[in-house]
Each structure stands twice: as structure tokens, then as C-alpha cells.
Amino acid sequence: MSRGGRRASLPEPSWQPPQRGILPEGGGTLVRFLEESGRRSRTYDFSKFKVTPAMQQWLARSFSRRVGTARTSSKRFGTAEGHFYTASSFADVLADCDPQPTSPDGLTGQHIQAYVDFYEGRPVQQHYVKRLRTLLRGTPNCPRMPGRRC
């Protein structure tokens, strides 16, 4: 009981928290983001990226680490959208690379450099490189980023 004598409200016994993170029905390419308020959610689909399914799943896992749990720092749609845009633009750059990485093990520093070069000369270059670094931080199979490690 609280100090005022009223019991705290509890959810129905059958209540389940909404599913977050990687969704089982998407083959590892669907990630659900739930805004901190719990009022809005969105499912992000990585299967539309022009990279191999192994890379789609790897990017989805990287994205999920940033937005898929209640304990992440991504609480708002704007942040999740920014991470998704970064993953999407990175996938576009990887799709144009020769050779294109077919799995996370094939990802090299040259692929990261191609992403840096894609934004070369644009005022937003540092911003997007930092966002990619944030997205990939702590991700297995992450090659060295220019200037520091993932």
C-alpha cells in the first residue's frame, strides 16, 4: 500500500508486455520499436535492404541493440528513425561495393571507408560517420572505424 492507503493498480493477470526487438516472424529482419510512452510503435523491415540476408539480419541485430529494449537510450521515434536511416544508407553503400560483403565476416575497413567517402565533402559527413559508429558499437564482426574502434 502507498502512504495514502490506496493500493497500486496492477495490470490484468493475462497482460503481456508488447514484443520489442527482433520479431520471430520476420526471419531476423523485422525489429519492433516501442516509444518510451508505450503509445506508439513501429516495425522496421530490414529485408528490403539491397544486401544479402545475412547482412540484413546483422544490421537488424545492430539496430535492435540500439532501440529494441526498454533499457536503451533510444526512447523516441526520431532517434529510431535516425538509426534506421543510417542502417539503410550503409546497406546502400555496401550494395554498391565491389566486392559486396555477403556476411558480416566479409565486412572490412574498406567497406566502412566507402561509407565515409560516400558523404565526403558534405557538411553532414561527420554526423553520419558518428551515427554509423553508434549503430555498430559493440556489434560482433565490426571492422575498425576510421579514427577509432566500434
Characterize this entry briefly.
The protein is mainly alpha-helical and 150 residues long.
Provide the fold topology.
Layout: E1 21-22, E2 30-34, E3 41-45, H1 53-67, H2 77-96, H3 109-118, H4 125-136
Antiparallel strand pairs: 1-2, 2-3
Verbal overview:
The protein has 150 residues and is mainly alpha-helical. Helix 1 packs antiparallel against helix 2 (77-96) and helix 2 (77-96) crosses helix 3 (109-118). It contains 4 helices and 3 strands; from the N terminus they run E-E-E-H-H-H-H. A 3-stranded antiparallel sheet has the order 1-2-3, covered by helices on one side. The protein is elongated. The longest helix is centred in the middle third of the chain and has 20 residues, at 77-96. Helix content is 38%, strand content 8%.
List its salient traits.
150 residues; mainly alpha; 3-stranded antiparallel sheet; 4 helices
Q: Name the average pLDDT.
A: 81
Rg result: 18 Å
Strand order of the largest sheet: 1-2-3
User: What is the chain-wise order of helices and strands?
Assistant: EEEHHHH
Strand content is 5-15%
SS elements, strand count? 3
Helix content: 25-40%
Described by strand count, sense and barrel closure, the largest sheet is: 3 strands, antiparallel
Low-confidence stretches: none
Shape estimate? elongated
Structural class: mainly alpha
Distance between the termini: 47 Å
- Alpha plus pi helix count: 4
